[in-house]
TrEMBL record:
Source organism, top-level taxon: Bacteria
SUPFAM superfamilies recorded: MtlR-like (SSF158668)
Single GO BP term: negative regulation of DNA-templated transcription
Protein known as: Mannitol repressor, MtlR
One Pfam family per UniProt: MtlR
InterPro entries associated with the record: MtlR-like, MtlR-like_sf
Organism: Psychromonas ingrahamii (strain DSM 17664 / CCUG 51855 / 37)
C-alpha cells in the first residue's frame, strides 16, 4: 500500500475512533475496524482468482461458514504466521472488550475500574503509555478541576487506544509472502 493511501487509512481510523463519544460506541467501532482490516487481509490471502482456491475457500468465509467469526479468522491468521502473538492476543482482548462493554450498556465510562483493568491488559496500549489506575483518582479540588482531570484521563486512555488500534491494523496490512 503506498504511503499516501496508508496515511489516509490511518487518518480514517483516527477520525472514526475520535468521533466516538462513549466507550460503548468506541469499542463497537474498533471491533468493526478490526473486522474490516482482517477481511481485507483474508481476501488478499485467500480470495484469489484461482478457481480451486475460490471454490474451496469461499464457502468457509461466507457469513454462515466456519471462518465467519472474527475470533476464528484471527486464529487462522496467527496460525499462518500473518499475525504476531502480541497482535493476536490484543485483538482477542478488543473482542472481549466489545462483549464486555455491550453487556455493561451504553453508560460505561472509559474510567470505569472494570473497563480500565481490561484496557491496561492490552500490550499495545501498555507499550505506548502505561496507564496507572492512580491517575484516574483526582485529588479533592473544585468541581471544575476534578472534571478537567477526569476529562484529561479519558482522553489519554482514548488516545492510547486509538494509537494501539492503528498500530495493530498497520501490522495486518503489511506485505507478506501470502498476500
Amino acid at each position: 500500500m503506498p504511503t499516501f493511501s496508508r496515511l489516509k487509512f490511518d487518518i480514517d481510523i483516527v477520525e472514526t475512533l475520535s468521533e466516538a463519544e462513549t466507550a460503548y460506541v468506541f469499542f463497537t467501532a474498533s471491533f468493526d475496524l478490526f473486522e474490516d482490516a482482517i477481511d481485507i487481509l483474508i481476501q488478499n490471502v485467500f480470495r484469489k482468482d484461482d478457481y480451486a482456491v475460490k471454490y474451496a475457500v469461499e464457502p468457509l468465509l461466507n457469513n454462515d461458514g466456519p471462518l465467519a467469526q472474527l475470533a476464528i479468522r484471527i486464529k487462522l491468521l496467527y496460525g499462518l504466521g500473518l499475525l504476531s502473538q502480541d497482535a493476536y492476543q490484543d485483538i482477542e482482548k478488543f473482542i472481549a472488550l466489545k462483549t464486555f462493554v455491550q453487556s455493561e450498556g451504553e453508560s460505561i465510562d472509559f474510567l470505569s475500574p472494570l473497563l480500565f483493568e481490561r484496557i491496561n491488559a492490552i500490550s499495545a496500549v501498555a507499550e505506548m503509555i502505561p496507564i496507572n489506575a492512580d491517575d484516574n483518582q483526582p485529588e479533592e479540588s473544585s468541581h471544575f478541576i476534578v472534571q478537567m482531570k477526569l476529562d484529561h484521563n479519558r482522553q489519554v486512555i482514548k488516545s492510547s487506544l486509538i494509537l494501539a488500534i492503528t498500530e495493530i491494523i498497520k501490522e495486518l496490512h503489511r506485505d507478506t509472502s501470502l498476500s
